[in-house]
Design brief:
60% helix
Length: 259
Amino acid sequence: MCICGHFTILNTLHQQIKILSNVTTGYQQPRRANLKQDKHNIAIFDTFKTRKNRFTGEAKRQRGIIAHLATEQSPEFRTRTSIAHVIARKQGILWQNIYSGIFRDLDEALIPSGVIKEGGRLPLRRGPRALQLEGVPFYELTETGLLVASSIEEIGIEREKILEKYLASVPIHDHSERTIFEGLLLLVKTAPSFAFKIINEYIYAYSSGFIDNITPLDVKILRSVISKQIGIEKELIEAFINMKPHQKDVVTNFFKEIS
């Protein structure tokens, strides 16, 4: 959608931005050092200290695991070995070199944090008898995992569908929640980059250990997490709404030319 198209929805979005930026909770970020003793944090946003634009190996593995489980339907291709093969192929390395890392990511981070769960077991025809009896586990995303998956850019256009499906399924208890969820659903369709910015900030707070749970999506926590992150957008929308018609044309033409 061109930038002029985005401006046609500014009046509708103004109320959503106003509600999102009105902090009504006493949310404070706890000390991360204490949380790491009690909570298994996921590393999907971790970057190198000296290269903030590059994900760490752990972050790339975990993002790859979540992206694969979000898009693969067959249990046969959702085992540890299958996941290792898929991610290794994308990274151009041997699957044996990444298997132990994936095993650790699942058992020490993604499963304990509630992002992934065991979906069942596949029978084995060969190998040790104990494994034949127990079968090989395959994995699936939890409700939390589906919301986390919507922040993984590697999934592509499919993550918009994931987020839309999740938001449409969340129970609504009051007018404020309805306004925010309807606003997010509209943003996913009309301004997806902004919608994902909001969701990513919420999930980042979870992955960093600042909040314990992200599902069901808590509007009060969402508001407190992102209120300071959307200041520029809020300023632009409020200014645009209050502009005279010819001033709106000037701003619209500005964005047309500069983008």
